[in-house]
User: Fold this.
Amino acid sequence: MIRPFFSEACVRIAVLLLAAGPGLRAQPADTPVSSYLPVNGEEPAAKLLLRLAREKPARMQSHRAYLAERYDLVDGPAAGGTMSRGKPLQGGVRARLAPGVTWEMLAALTPAEIRARDIFPAGFRPLPHPHHAEGGMLFPAFVIDELQRQEQRDLARVDLDFDLPDHFLPEFPPAIFLTTRPDLGDVSQGRVVTLDNYFALFNGILNPKQLEGLRLLLTPFPQQQFNSTDDRRSDRPSRGVACLDCHTNGHTNAATHLAGDARPQAFRHRVDTPTLRGVNIQRLFGSQRALKSVEDFTEFEQRGAYFDGDTVIAVKKGANVLERGSQVHAMAEMQALFDFPPAPKLGVTGRLDPAIATAAELRGQALFAGKAQCATCHAPPYYTDNSMHNLHTARFFAPRPERGAITTADGPIKTFPLRGLKDSPPYLHDGRLLTLADTVEFFNLILGTRLTADEKADLEAFLRVL
Ligand code: HEC
Ligand code: HEC
Assistant:
């Protein structure tokens, strides 16, 4: 299907309409674009929450229909592949093609031709938040249930549910590997670490400063949607959100959010929670922001990201300003202990051990370093160059308003490490790619490498063992 083109002027008008953040949406289109969120609500809280709850079913239904247009969402495990604790990997390319188009046809066209015919797969464009104009932290149902059970803390939103099906998300609870105690293997004991059990699980394994860091990472603090003011999205006033509510067990549960970095609202990127495994070997933090230390990112999360990047609203809702010496350092030290999961087929240099790797994996490794060009940016042993790159995705499609977002150029994005990759779907900063096979097709177009079907399968086999 050839979709109509959107002119730059049309996008500009849409920007004005969509620019306003939460609470401003009902205002006329000539409302000045502002960097700030409104401080006072326009509707009494009880009435607002009731209205949002009433709107929720229709909103989720239309968003799920949109996802079904972008992707094949069926639960279809890949033969043989599992995450570290056994959850099956999903198989196959899930981004849908326009009718009559094949992956081979697409790869034979130039980016300009793909753009002119508007046949870049919709699932390869930026993924909007389920309610982009509103945004905010949003948790999968299994996370909400577990925290409710352990801590009687409710992270359900009255206005929204998480959107992607569970089979595309990381296993829950994920394993925990410690850089300081590799001899112990997975120390999670199959549990979600919370304030309720962290001491019993880690006393005697961590030092006192790390234990204090872990306690702080598990302590809820107010944020934009979960707080005790009238401007919240939880049914009842909330104690807030802890770091490891999203970074469960130092990994990720795919909770989503909008990055605080851009204005207006429609240009903010949806962000899929990245794993904290391997932050010890990384030098840049945040997909767009490139903060230079885990300490800086830890401070920024609670001062800025928790409040959608608005320092004014943070004062109203109760920002928790962390003390650098006694709190931030302890939290950062703890984060640096979360190790990548074991990759038994990789040797000390991060390359396959030919004695145990399969022929397909070895061919995949050769492609990764050769024809497929991946190693240019994803250098072993951790498969990152600790830098940012602009993949120029917008060569392939015209910018357009899409469900409250403007889907347009991504800009420079951090090269996420590929070690432990199989454990952290969905992929890319916004989670737009659902499977490893999707990432292979995506980069085949982005890099213009024209891989054959066999080469794509080999490359995927290699990605699974990283
Ligand atoms: C709503 C879920 C959520 C909560 C709660 C949360 N984070 Fe994050 N975290 C994210 C997302 C999403 C990103 C990616 C942000 C981006 O790309 O700009 C991120 C990024 C990070 C990063 C950088 C990782 C990287 O690979 O670049 C660190 C470090 C981090 N968070 C630590 C924390 C700490 C410490 C806290 C508590 C103060 C916290 N997070 C609370 C979702 C969350
Ligand atoms: C020019 C540098 C560059 C090259 C070459 C490159 N990548 Fe990447 N890769 C990136 C960047 C930057 C990101 C983050 C993009 C985003 O999140 O929007 C990324 C993200 C990924 C991700 C998702 C990681 C995650 O945790 O979400 C996968 C998988 C991946 N690349 C695989 C590959 C493969 C396979 C190849 C070769 C076919 C490849 N990349 C080539 C820079 C590169």
About this structure: The chain has two domains: 70-129+343-464, 141-335. Strands lie at 77-82, 88-90, 256-258, 270-272, 388-390, 400-402, 405-407, 412-414. The pocket of heme C (ligand 2) is lined by residues 287, 372-374, 376-378, 389, 391, 410, 413, 415-416, 418, 421, 424, 427-429, 439-440, 443, 447, 459 (CB under 6 Å). Residues 141-335 form one domain.
